[in-house]
Specification:
- By secondary structure, the protein is of the alpha/beta class.
- The protein has two domains: 210 residues, Rossmann fold (3-Layer(aba) Sandwich); 330 residues, Glycosidases (TIM Barrel, Alpha-Beta Barrel).
- Helix 2 links the parallel strand 1 and strand 2.
- Helix 2 crosses helix 6, helix 10 runs parallel beside helix 11 and helix 12 crosses helix 13.
Length: 562
C-alpha cells in the first residue's frame, strides 16, 4: 500500500499527544483515578486485528478496553455502563444486532465506527451527524492524504447538514490520484473510518488513524465512577438505611408459553427499568420444588429453577449498573401434585429431618454462590409458615451460612404477613423481610381514607413486634398489587376477581396509601416492589408490573423515599 507523507500538522499534533501521555504529562495524574471504559465490538474477538485494535485503543487513549462479540453485547446495560464505543466491521456477513444499533442511535457517548455496516445506522443518526454512506467500496482507494479538518464536498461519500456538518478528517485516493473518498469522517459524537486501518505503530499510515481515534473518542471522562470492589460494595450495602428494591422474577415455561432465558434482551430491558426507577437493589430468587406438602426432599426444575450461571450473569449486570443484589431461596409446590389453594406456607414434611437435610444443602450452596458472586443479601427462606417453629434448625442454618459457607453479606428471612407468631429465632437474622400482602379492604375501589385506616392498624402490630427484636431490621421485602379490581381485598393474588378486568386506579390508590404510610414509619428499613415482568409497559396489562401505568410515578418516589 503506497502512502503519502503525513502533513506537518499531523506530526505536531502527534508530538503534543505524546507529551500529554508521557510520564508526568497531563494524563499521568488521571491514572490514579478509575479509567474510562471503552467497549470494542468485533465479529471475532479472537482475531489478531481485533486484539491489535484493543491494544491501540488502550495505549493511545489511556482507557480500560473490553473486547466483545455482538452476542456478548448487553442491550441498554452496556450503553449505560461504558463511556465510549468502537465497532469493528471487518466481516460483511456478521452485521450488528438490532438492539446494538438502537443503543448506538440513542447514545451521546463517543462512537467510532470502522469498516462495514455503517449504512445500517438509523436515519436519525445520519441526520444528527451529517453522515450519508454511499455505495462506494474503499478497496480501490489505498493512499491516505491528511488535510486536517475540511468541509465536506459535493462528491464525497459523506454529505454535510446545516446544523451538524460532517467533516472529512482525511482522504483515501486511488493509485493515480484521479479520485478520492473520505478515509475518516467526523460528525457530532460519531467517527466513521471507511476502511480497515493498519494498526502497526511503525506503519506510515498509522498516525492518521491514531488522529481520528483521538478526535472521536475525546473527551472521555477522566474519573469515571466504577462499581466498587465487592468489599466496598458490601460495606455500602450494609450501611444502606432504606433498601429500595424491585423484584425481577425469572419467567419459566408453562402450558404453551415460550421459555425466556436470562440472556434474552427482555431481561436487559427490565434491569434497565429497575435502575431508571431509582431503586438501589434488585431482588432475585432461586426456586426449588417439592411434590406435595408432605414431601421430604426438594428438587431443581430444569426450567423453573434459575441456574447459578444465569444468576451470576444477572448479578454481574446489576452490579455494573450500580445496583445491589438480593437473592432469595424459595420452595414451591410443583403444579403436578399441588392441590387447590395449597402453597408453600402449608409445607409439613412427613420426614422433617430429611427435609431439613435437603433444604440445608440448597441454602448453603446458594450462600457459597452468593459469596462468590458478590451478592450483598441472602434470604434463607420465605413464607414457610409451618416450618418456622423449628427454631434450632433455623438458628443453626443462619450460623452455618455465615461460618460454614463463609457468606459475608446480610442474612434475612421472609415471613408472610400473617405468620409472625413463631419467629422466636429472628434475632439470628440481620433483617426480617415481610411479604406485606395484608388485605386492606373488603370491597373493590376503597378510598384512600379506608386504606390508610387499615395501614394504621397494621402499623400498631409491627411496632409491638419490633419492640421485642430491636436489633433486627424490619422491611417490606415484597409488596405489590395487580392492576385489577379487588386488588385491595386480595393483594396476594394474580386473579383477585373472576372477571380479570383492568383497574389502574385501584393499583394507583394502593401505592398512594403505601407511600403515605411509609412516610410515617422510619422504622421500616426497606421496600421490595413486586415486580418487573415481561409485561412492563405493555398496554392493557392487568398484572403486578407498575411500569407504564399511573402507579409507576408513585413507585419511583418510593424508591427514593429515604
Amino acid at each position: 500500500m503506497s502512502v503519502l507523507r503525513i502533513t506537518a500538522f499531523l506530526a505536531i499534533w502527534a508530538i503534543a499527544l505524546w507529551a500529554e501521555l508521557a510520564p508526568g504529562g497531563a494524563r499521568a495524574e488521571a491514572q490514579t483515578k478509575p479509567l474510562p471504559q471503552v467497549l470494542v465490538i468485533a465479529p471475532d474477538k479472537s482475531s489478531a486485528h481485533a486484539k491489535a485494535l484493543l491494544r491501540v485503543i488502550e495505549a493511545e487513549l489511556a482507557v480500560q478496553g473490553t473486547l466483545a462479540e455482538m452476542s456478548d453485547y448487553h442491550p441498554l446495560i452496556d450503553e449505560l455502563y461504558y463511556d465510549g464505543f468502537v465497532y469493528l466491521g471487518e466481516d460483511y456477513f456478521v452485521p450488528p444486532s438490532e438492539p446494538f444499533l438502537a443503543d448506538m442511535s440513542r447514545t451521546r457517548k463517543p462512537l467510532l465506527w470502522i469498516g462495514y455496516h455503517a449504512w445500517l445506522l438509523p436515519a436519525g443518526v445520519r441526520e444528527r451527524t451529517g453522515l450519508t454512506v454511499q455505495d462506494l467500496h474503499p478497496d480501490a482507494y489505498d493512499t491516505i492524504n491528511y488535510h486536517g479538518l475540511a468541509p465536506v464536498g459535493g462528491g464525497d461519500t459523506s454529505v454535510a447538514t446545516a446544523d451538524h456538518p460532517a467533516r472529512v478528517f482525511y482522504w483515501l485516493y486511488n493509485a493515480d490520484r484521479t479520485a478520492a473518498i473520505p478515509g475518516a469522517v467526523l460528525g457530532d459524537n460519531l467517527g466513521y473510518v471507511s476502511y480497515l486501518p493498519v494498526l502497526d505503530p511503525e506503519h506510515p499510515g498509522y498516525p492518521a488513524f491514531r488522529a481520528v481515534l483521538a478526535e472521536t473518542m475525546s473527551p472521555l471522562p477522566a474519573s469515571r465512577a466504577l462499581p466498587p470492589q465487592p468489599e466496598a460494595r458490601l460495606a455500602a450495602a450494609k450501611a444502606d438505611t432504606f433498601r429500595s428494591a424491585i423484584h425481577l422474577p425469572f419467567v419459566f415455561a408453562g402450558d404453551g408459553e415460550e421459555t425466556i432465558p436470562y440472556a434474552s434482551d427482555d431481561y436487559h430491558r427490565r434491569l434497565f427499568n429497575i435502575k431508571q426507577s431509582g431503586a438501589d437493589w434488585v431482588a432475585l430468587s432461586q426456586t426449588y420444588f417439592q411434590h406435595g406438602i408432605s414431601a421430604s426432599d426438594l428438587q431443581a426444575h430444569e426450567v423453573g429453577t434459575a441456574s447459578f450461571a444465569a444468576l451470576e450473569h444477572i448479578a454481574d449486570d446489576a452490579h455494573r449498573l450500580g445496583l445491589f443484589v438480593q437473592l432469595s431461596v424459595i420452595v414451591n409446590l410443583d403444579e403436578e401434585t399441588r392441590k387447590p389453594n395449597e402453597w408453600r406456607g402449608f409445607i409439613r414434611p412427613s420426614d422433617r429431618q430429611e427435609w431439613w437435610r435437603s433444604y440445608r444443602k440448597i441454602v448453603l450452596d446458594a450462600a457459597r454462590f452468593a459469596d462468590r458472586a458478590g451478592i450483598e443479601a441472602l434470604v434463607i427462606g420465605a413464607e414457610l409458615n409451618r416450618m418456622q417453629g423449628d427454631a434450632a434448625q433455623w438458628r443453626a442454618l443462619a450460623a452455618d451460612v455465615r461460618e460454614q459457607a463463609q457468606y459475608a453479606g446480610l442474612v434475612g428471612y421472609q415471613v408472610n404477613f400473617d405468620a409472625f407468631d413463631n419467629l422466636t429465632w429472628a434475632d439470628a437474622l440481620d433483617f426480617l423481610s415481610i411479604a406485606a400482602y395484608w388485605p386492606l379492604a373488603t370491597t373493590r375501589d376503597p378510598s384512600l381514607t379506608e386504606l390508610l385506616a387499615s395501614w394504621e392498624k397494621i402499623g400498631a402490630g409491627l411496632t409491638e413486634w419490633a419492640r421485642d427484636y430491636p436489633a433486627v431490621a424490619l422491611e417490606f421485602g415484597e409488596i405489590g398489587y395487580a392492576s385489577q379490581p379487588y386488588a385491595a381485598v386480595f393483594p396476594f393474588s394474580w386473579k383477585p376477581n373472576r372477571s380479570r378486568n383492568l383497574s389502574h386506579q385501584e393499583q394507583l390508590n394502593l401505592y398512594l396509601a403505601l407511600e403515605a404510610f411509609l412516610k410515617t414509619r422510619p422504622d421500616i428499613t426497606g421496600l421490595g416492589v413486586f415486580a418487573s415482568t415481561r409485561y412492563d409497559r405493555v398496554p392493557g396489562d392487568i398484572g403486578y408490573s407498575p411500569f407504564g401505568k399511573p402507579a409507576e410515578a408513585v413507585v419511583n418516589r418510593l424508591m427514593s423515599l429515604r
